[in-house]
Amino acid sequence: PLGDRRYHTYAADILDSGRHLLELINDVLDMAKVEAGKFKIYPKSMDMQETIGQAIRLVSGRAEEKSIIIEADIRDGGDIVGDARAIKQIIINLLTNAIKFTPDSGRVLIQVRSRFEDVSIQVIDTGIGIPSEHLPRLARPFEQVENEHAKANQGSGLGLALSRSFAEMHGGTLSISSELGVGTMVTVT
Q: Rounded to whole angstroms, what are the CA distances from 68 to 28, 30, 107, 171?
């Protein structure tokens, strides 16, 4: 009947589905621009603490749903030169993956370290880990580890590929280390 409280649940499901589709479409469009050489970055001075704070706020709802604690160690994260939109997208992608593959009540740590001209961003989780044989292919477009957890948490398979491309556009790198059952660490320099 009209006014049934299930309408609120239905509307929330529709909104979540729409947001998910928008994320997938945006990832595909960004990857197409990168591969066509049409994605441009506009480096300027930016505040890493502010950028990381914004990214954490954007993913905090997902973390709260799983009772995952996000810790930030950004004492070295002052002003840097970079494209704020691209760097924020890198951080969002890495945090989203960490949350997705960390069991309930886990932890995700993001830390920033500065050394000479380089800035290193690390996202470390207490997640399920990745088999070592899958690590080399993970940051390629549309690549995902095929396991039951990944099937239940579908994505586009573009987050790490975009993050690697954005890091390389800044003259940097992206590396992944992981241990099954212990967690994963992704480092962007």
A: 28, 29, 5, 32
